[in-house]
Known about the structure:
Elements: E1 4-10, E2 14-21, E3 28-32, H1 36-49, E4 52-59, H2 66-85, E5 93-100, E6 103-110, E7 116-120, E8 127-128, E9 131-132, H3 135-147, E10 150-157, H4 161-179
Parallel strand pairs: 3-4, 7-10
Antiparallel strand pairs: 1-2, 2-4, 5-6, 6-10, 8-9
Helix pairs in contact: 1-4, 2-3
Amino acid sequence: MNNIAKIARETKETQIKLEIEVRSSNPGLFGSSGIGFFDHMLNTFAIHGGFNINLSMTGDLHVDCHHTIEDVGIVLGTAFREIIDRTQNIARFATVHIPMDEALAFCAVDLGGRAYLVFNAEFKSALIGAYDTQMTREFFAALASNIRANIHVNLLYGENDHHTTEAIYKSAARAIKTALAASDDIMSAK
Length: 190
């Protein structure tokens, strides 16, 4: 498996260079989006997925966090798709439940090339630091669209938005990691 992809994206709102290595011996986020809580979620995503993510970016944070978070989802999804397109015989499907204290999140993925997001989560607060909780859905919508995957996220319960959001990112990371695992079978009837 060629497990590294490099993507650059430049718009009027953001300038992003991202490199990802899946199945990394050194997982984590290296770099910053400029949004502290989002960096925490990306680092959590990277560690639980076994991904090394190098991120160099600037965004129009003087407006708000929307373009920065959405565009990272676009670039990250594009990088994953590049790796998937070069890879043969992956597990393709995965489901994962992740608890985080009082919260429990579930994520199911199909990396089969069709983009669709189901996102069932509500948050009690508008912000976690400078992170707009509405952007959790927008990040996963951008990721699903650009990785061309079915991603189903369900927050089953939870009270603290930090915990619920972190459980969502962890469950998605572990589901994607499992779906990217090598398989001896071609997971398609077509």
